[in-house]
């Protein structure tokens, strides 16, 4: 089993087979329009423009599980990304990424790219850990997705390669993407 065995709902609710992305390097991201990390859409779009022709696809999945930071409809979430950040990569239907109703794709991603742990020397991660402890302490343990803008890198064969936390720098993400596109 790999990523190509899953389907995802587009913003209009129609399902698409992820096998349509065979041969592409994927960066799968849970997103939100009202999050501290929302400006990462700029970096994601820049990465997409830079590497799309080389075979990169970015797939955005809005998620409202973290502080209600994606309250609108699927269409509103996609429109926000396009109008405010010029996002040209696909924004899918809203999903849950943790808990009983977690989307099967994200259950799979969590299983094959476990959480690396918090880096307490990184102030952003330290603050994120404190916020999660206050709001959703059940997500501190295990491989749950800790917050919006967690990213999963998938190679062109559909294999999960790496998980990036919301606080990880884009230079590291770019280096890993480049290594798969060469």
UniProtKB/TrEMBL annotation:
Oxidoreductase listed as a keyword: yes
Organism: Pseudobacillus wudalianchiensis
InterPro entries noted in UniProt: Glutathione_peroxidase, GPX_CS, Thioredoxin-like_sf
The protein's name: Glutathione peroxidase
Any Pfam family matching the protein: GSHPx
Biological process according to GO: cellular response to oxidative stress
Entry keywords, A to Z: Oxidoreductase, Peroxidase
Family classification: Belongs to the glutathione peroxidase family.
Active site residues of this protein: 35
A molecular function GO annotation: peroxidase activity
């Amino acid at each position: 089993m790999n990523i190509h065995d899953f389907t995802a709902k587009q913003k209009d609710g129609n399902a698409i087979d992820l096998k349509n992305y065979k041969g592409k390097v994927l960066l799968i991201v849970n997103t939100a329009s009202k999050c501290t990390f929302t400006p990462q859409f700029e970096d994601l779009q820049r990465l997409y423009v830079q590497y799309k022709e080389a075979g990169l696809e970015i797939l955005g999945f809005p998620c409202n599980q973290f502080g209600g930071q994606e309250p609108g409809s699927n269409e509103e979430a996609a429109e926000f990304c396009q109008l405010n950040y010029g996002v040209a990569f696909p924004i899918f239907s809203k999903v849950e990424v943790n808990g009983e109703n977690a989307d099967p794709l994200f259950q799979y991603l969590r299983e094959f790219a476990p959480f690396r742990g918090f880096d307490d020397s990184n102030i952003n991660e330290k603050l994120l850990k404190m916020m999660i402890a206050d709001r959703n302490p059940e997500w501190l343990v295990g491989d749950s997705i800790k917050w919006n803008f967690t990213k999963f890198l998938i190679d062109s064969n559909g294999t999960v390669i790496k998980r990036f936390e919301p606080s990880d720098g884009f230079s590291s993400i770019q280096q890993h993407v480049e290594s798969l596109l060469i």
